[in-house]
Design a protein that fits this description.
LVIVD; globular; single chain; 5-stranded antiparallel sheet; Methylamine Dehydrogenase, Chain H; 5 helices; mainly beta
């Protein structure tokens, strides 16, 4: 009987861990990317359609009498705002792999899987695609980092040609693999080498639209600046029929937003704010940076102060949420002056002496900053989720949780003008 038990136990162990001359094996989850031909995939990724409900509201952009709302990774909704009390959705521009846009002279510039796509919106009721510049912003391998990864023990990328293939998803299978092969993944001294980390890492002019503080696109004069995950991508758009791709400028592996004041760029990143001069607009030059703990980090600037919201928690990092007011009178030596606690801040905006902060589920907060760096809370719009805000000349746009809010300025206060469900 004892021998029978021993045999059964030995058989059970063999099922769980099999051995041969190479060593023990076990069952592991192996994930492989699902590929599609990039040419056909991108051709299917663009379309101008009738209005549809929004799935995940992202950034907003204002141009003349129209508002453009990003549907994260899917495209953007076009809203006729000639009557701010009663806005009307008029179209949806399907543009997969899209996160942001910028507009000048009726030409709309957008990203799609790392390509730069240009639309003609001179006839808003007949929007047409003008051109697509492949891999102008980043290669498809960077797009891969935006696809949600499945839980797996191994990720087998295979032989992907990023100029020809697009990763559309993942399939996960159970396979027998060496235990030693699995363990080697956790004993890698060079997995985080510098090369790998580099791969992942204002009143508008009348003819140029206006984005919020979370923008990755910024048009200044005849140049379009786009921040990806590590670089400033620069385009000469003076001749829209012949857009010139200029040399990128590497900033950091974690950059997220771009803002400008005069000939200075302020780049927001999860580790800090980076300051670049564009006296030569084709070659931004590093001036200085202000470092902080890991957090999501949009920035706006007015005069001698930069206002930076840091959102901690979740994927944003462990830094406590707050508003940082930074003295930039000396651009080469930015100096933190005050930190104001916040609950979960996102975008922010400035109009004259008023500072607007989208504090997530805590609503829209309005501050008087006339005594900067000291600011005073003068109003709070509660019971709403505030994501990003654009202060215009006569009204304020704010988006959050699938809703577009418009406020009008009244003396030193603002009041709700309309709410539009996207």
């Amino acid at each position: 009987m004892r021998n029978l038990v021993f045999v059964l136990c030995t058989f059970a162990l063999a099922v769980l861990v099999s051995c041969d001359d190479d060593g023990p094996y076990e069952n592991y989850q192996v994930a492989r990317p699902i590929l599609q031909d990039a040419i056909s995939f991108k051709a299917e990724a663009v379309d101008v359609m009738e209005p549809i409900p929004i799935e995940s509201s992202g950034k907003i952009y204002a141009y003349r009498d129209y508002i453009f709302v990003n549907d994260v990774n899917k495209g953007f909704h076009v809203i006729d705002n000639q009557n701010p009390s009663s806005p009307e959705s008029i179209a949806f521009i399907k543009l997969e792999g899209n996160f942001d846009i910028s507009i000048k002279d009726d030409k709309l510039y957008a990203d799609s899987y790392g390509d730069l796509v240009i639309f003609d919106i001179s006839d808003i009721n007949n929007i047409s695609i003008q051109s697509r510049i492949v891999n102008a912003i980043y290669n498809n391998d960077v797009w891969l980092s935006t696809i949600e990864f499945p839980q797996a023990d191994f990720y087998d990328y295979g032989d992907i040609d990023y100029d020809k293939d697009i990763v559309t998803g993942w399939e996960v299978r159970t396979e027998r693999r060496l235990v030693s092969e699995y363990e080697e993944q956790f004993n890698c001294d060079v997995c985080l080498n510098s090369d790998a980390s580099e791969n992942y890492s204002e009143s508008p002019q009348p003819s140029v639209g206006q984005g919020g503080s979370l923008a990755r696109f910024k048009i200044i004069g005849d140049y379009l600046y786009v921040v990806d995950y590590s670089d400033i991508n620069i385009f000469d758009i003076e001749d829209v029929e012949n857009v010139k791709i200029l040399d990128d400028v590497q900033v950091a592996w974690d950059i997220e937003t771009i803002y400008s004041q005069g000939n200075i760029l302020f780049i927001g990143g999860s580790q800090g704010m980076y300051i670049y001069g564009i006296e030569n607009p084709e070659k931004p030059e590093y001036i200085s940076e202000f470092r902080h703990g890991t957090a999501c980090d949009p920035v706006v600037v007015d005069g001698n102060y930069a206002y930076v919201t840091l959102k901690g928690g979740g994927f944003c990092g462990n830094t406590e949420s707050g508003l940082y007011v930074i003295d930039i009178a000396n651009l080469e030596n930015p100096e933190l002056k005050v930190i104001y606690p916040m609950d979960g801040p996102n975008g922010l905006g400035i109009k004259e002496d008023t500072l607007f902060i989208c504090d997530g589920a805590s609503g829209l907060k309005v501050y008087d900053k006339s005594n900067a760096p000291n600011i005073t809370l003068i109003n709070t719009f509660e019971d709403i989720v505030a994501y990003d805000v654009i202060p215009l000349s006569s009204s304020l746009l704010m988006i959050g949780d699938g809703l577009l809010y418009q406020y009008e300025y009244i003396n030193n206060d603002i009041r709700l003008l309309s709410t539009f469900e996207l």
